[in-house]
Amino acid sequence: MIKFSDLNLDPKVLKAIIDTGYEIPTPIQAGAIPPALEGRDVLGIAQTGTGKTASFTLPMITLLGRGRARARMPRSLVLAPTRELAAQVAENFNAYAKYTKLTKALLIGGTSFKEQDQLIDKGVDVLIATPGRLIDHFERGKLILSDVKIMVVDEADRMLDMGFIPDIERIFQMTPFTRQTLFFSATMAPEIERITNTFLSNPAKIEVARAATTGENIKQGVVMFQGTHKTKADAEKRELLRRLIAAEGDACSNAIIFCNRKSDVDVVAKSLKKHGMNAEPIHGDLDQSHRTRTLDGFRDGSIRFLVASDVAARGLDIPAVTHVFNFDVPSHAEDYVHRIGRTGRAGRTGTAIMICAPRDEKNLADVERLVQNAIPRLDNPMGAATPPTTTAPIDDVDAPREVKPRRQRTRGPRNAAPTPVVEATVAEVPAEVAEEAEAAPVAETASPEPVAQPQREDRPARSDRRPRGGERTGGDRERPAPDRNERPSPDRASNDRGGRDQEPRDRADGDRGGRGRGNDRSGGRQDNVVGMGDDTPEFIAKSFAERSGA
Ligand code: AMP
Asked: Rounded distance, CA 104 to CA 120, Å?
């Protein structure tokens, strides 16, 4: 068995590892650290929860041990798609580099340029940034990237989702050709493969088997929901959510509730609070300190329900989440996998329950096709007039059935539901729900038309760029690039499309012969798997903060 001491890491790094309590390297660490220390490019196909952050931070700290940073010329660069992920990487650096003199700066939106400039001016060894903020600093002439020796791209598939690929290409071009590149992505979409073929040189490829997409340790279910009337549907859906939560009883210690739209995140959180539940919202419109506070509260247990958008919660290392509730079926099937992956981490059990309204049925079919299984239908406690506590336990539902390809399908999932919601629900809507229904926004009119693509100042206008097929364009579905909003460039401001705050995704897919990622994200994957499969060791679930006592 490989030990950390076998990996040629700097003794100071080894000492820090001992402090964290890690005993053996995870497969991605054992696979990526040796080639990284040899100066080779690394292509790591792994997702959060596998220990991938340490697989690049540990060799970086070792390699940067020699030499000193010069003013405004960082020696290494880590790019992460969201502020939270960048902050998580920075925390990792703090822990692993604590016995070294290496300096770092975190360039993310929501914090002042001035303080960040001051740090960069002094000279930093490690710069951790979101792509938008990094380019802003560069364009303001505050940053020189010609001394970057190591560049890390973390969560590249997420970058693709968020439309950051042009920024990443640009940043690659701003750094020296001779740099070492460590590149991580959970999946190898064709566009990601193109980038790696272009910018990585003979990389060592390490693939950690994807945590079971819908692992056996995660009990799943979907409740088919149909409102009694469109003016009441929103409130009834929230009532259904509360009943589903109540039905889980004490087994639900905490939960992340995902909504597709930011406005729903706020409304659902408010509604849960109104009904005496300890819930807080998190999405890209909230300022950074608020988001950090909320996440800390959820981590330390002082907040029980985190109502979240995909962008705000994806990829975060939040251990021990017992439940995930999908208030909506995600419009991108792969988000389902990421959402439910917030629970049942590292061999723990978890429960994922989803609500599916009639208009979400196409999305549900996409999800089922992606996970190659039917998601068991649960009784609708409202439709069946069942008191919350007697809602069918999730174990009791039908076993997963095989999903046929759509063309062969003759009946939609709604027809397949054993207990479709019945009109009788009207009589059972309690008074306060009806009240809520009146107050509820009527903004549930998702248009099936794709949103027009915004053009960016750093790339030519292309008429053939298009959002991913099947994109729903609910008026306020979260724009998955919070940092961009804060970029001072006037051109950026034009990305704000008059209250329509969704940023189309996969902008880089459209014209490259790709079909968008769709459900096929396996392109370019290597056969050679260094993996944990479904048997992820328990320690992986432990949060960094827990271990370091930070
Ligand atoms: P990551 O995939 O980088 O988000 O890491 C997932 C979790 O695993 C984090 O909480 C890390 O602190 C933890 N971790 C990383 N490497 C190890 C290791 N070798 N042994 C135990 N825990 C680890």
From this structure: 9
209 confidence band (pLDDT: 50, 70, 90): low
Residue where a domain stops, chosen among 176, 207, 238: 207
The stretch 182-202 carries a mean pLDDT of 92
User: Residue 106: which domain range?
Assistant: 4-207
Q: Is the CB of 542 under 6 A from ligand 1?
A: yes
pTM greater than the 0.85 cutoff: no
Give residue 3 CA to ligand 1 midpoint distance, Å: 15
Residue after which a domain boundary falls, among 339, 358, 378: 378
Q: Is the pLDDT of residue 86 over 80?
A: yes
53 lines ligand 1 (CB under 6 A): yes
* Closest residue by CA, ligand 1 atom 20: 22
Residue 523, pLDDT > 90, answer: no
Which residue do the tokens 């506590």 mark?
Answer: 389
* Residue 72 is assigned to a structural domain of this protein: yes
Ligand 1, residue 543: give the atom nearest the CA.
10
Indicate the pLDDT class of residue 214, thresholds 50, 70 and 90: low
Q: Ligand 1: which residue has its CA nearest to atom 19? A: 25
Residue 430 belongs to a domain: no
Q: Is residue 495 within 6 Å of ligand 1 at its C-beta?
A: no
Same-domain pairing of 51 and 177: yes
| 463-497 CB burial, b ≥16 within 10 A, e <16 | eebbbbeebbbbbbbbbbbbbbbbbebeebeebee
